[in-house]
Amino acid sequence: MITASQLRAARALVGMDQKTLAEKAGVSLPTIQRMEASQGNVRGVVDTLTKIVNALDAAGVELIGENMPSYGTGRGVRLKSPPAE
C-alpha cells in the first residue's frame, strides 16, 4: 500500500510535479490529484497504482512499506511512527 503523503513526498524527492508523474505513468492528471488528496492509503485500480509506482521507481524513488527494511542505497526519507502517549 502507498499513502497519499508517501506519493506527495516521493514526487518531491525527485522534483517531479503532478503533471509529469501522470505523463510518465500513463495516467490522467486528475487521477494523480485525486490520489494525493485522499486520506490514508491511496485507493485505485491495481494497474494504475502499479504504473505510478513503476514511474516513481524509474525516477529513482524507493517506496518503503510500513515496518519494511530498505534494501536500496542513497538518500531517503522515512516517516517515524508517532510516539505512544
Q: What attributes characterize this protein structure?
A:
mainly alpha, 0% strand, 85 residues, globular, single chain
Produce the secondary structure layout:
Elements: H1 4-13, H2 18-25, H3 29-37, H4 46-58
Helix pairs in contact: 2-3, 2-4
Strand content: under 5%
Quote the distance from N terminus to C terminus. Answer: 26 Å
Shape category: globular
State the share of residues found in helices, binned by percent: 40-55%
Query: Which residues sit in consecutive blocks of at least 5 with pLDDT less than 50?
Result: none
Structure classification: mainly alpha
Number of β-strand runs: 0
Please explain how this structure is put together.
- With 85 residues, the chain is mainly α.
- The protein contains four helices and no strands.
- Helix content is 47%, strand content 0%.
- Helix 2 packs across helix 3.
- The chain starts with a helix and ends in a 27-residue tail after the last helix.
Kindly summarize this structure in a few lines.
The chain has 85 residues and is mainly α. The protein is built from 4 helices and no strands. Helix 2 (18-25) packs across helix 3 (29-37) and helix 2 (18-25) crosses helix 4 (46-58).
